[in-house]
User: Fold this.
Amino acid sequence: MKGLAASAPGKLFLSGEYAVLRGAPAVLTAVDRRAVARFVAGARRASPVVAAVIAELSARFPAHAGGDLAAPSLTVRTRGFARGRAKIGLGSSSAVAVAATALLLARAEGSAGAAADRVFEIALAAHRAAQGGRGSGADVAAAAYGGTIRYDAGAPVGRLGAVPVAIAFVWTGLPASTTALLARVQAFALAAPAEHRALMGELGSLATALADAYAAAETAEILRLTEAYGALMGRLGEAAGAPIVTPAHARVAKLAAARGGAGKPSGAGGGDVAVAVFAEAADRDRFATAAAADGLVVLDLKCGERGVEVSGG
Assistant:
């Protein structure tokens, strides 16, 4: 299948960070930065994520193992997922897993366009293997399905409509280590289980309310709950000794509130991206101007990007 290619979008969290790991819903939107997988002669050795995809598919399709699924020439480009050499937290590894899965499925089966459900199931298993079993799988779901989704681990992915608020995404200038942040939160859970349980219970309740507000397009509730969720992420970080809400995140939240909106980390925090939400596009635009004047980088990203696609062949 010469000329075959597959692509999958990056993602950003709108709500549900940390709580999704304990069964609460998260809301994510796919963004218009895509990982593109192709077969290129002389490509370098596969990345750990691509190697995990190959291993997962080889186990499921033993007749193709070492043949179509060996794919030594598979390469995945993720140029839009970083600024210079710094990743910006758009879920590049998940997009790579989804794009590589779709491409290899098409090669092994001789047809393009595997269903998103099937690509997601396989890519999720491979991504978890590559990540040592960590993560909720929400970012893999966003890359597979695209659009804006409600994700509850172990439940069917819920597709939401257009995002009912005006959104700005801001690069904090600092790449974050999700693994390190999760490790600190886990250490806090072991050291102070009752306090951790109480905070996670509050986060779970807010995450559920936010997911419901997005589904019902309740703009005022989304703004109110986003502000509360960001504050509670800050409390979790302080309790765990983890820099979840950085000074840049706090600046975004303050600038957003001054213009009628709300801001919080998008993802685990510690850097990467902040999200600011507003009832009106004009408020978002005023925020963007103020954020740029304050030295923050407002990212040119669109929400609701289409999900995994296969073309060519």
Summary: The longest strand covers residues 26-39. The radius of gyration is 19 Å. The domain at 166-299 is CATH 3.30.70.890 (Alpha-Beta Plaits). The chain has two domains: 5-162+303-311, 166-299.
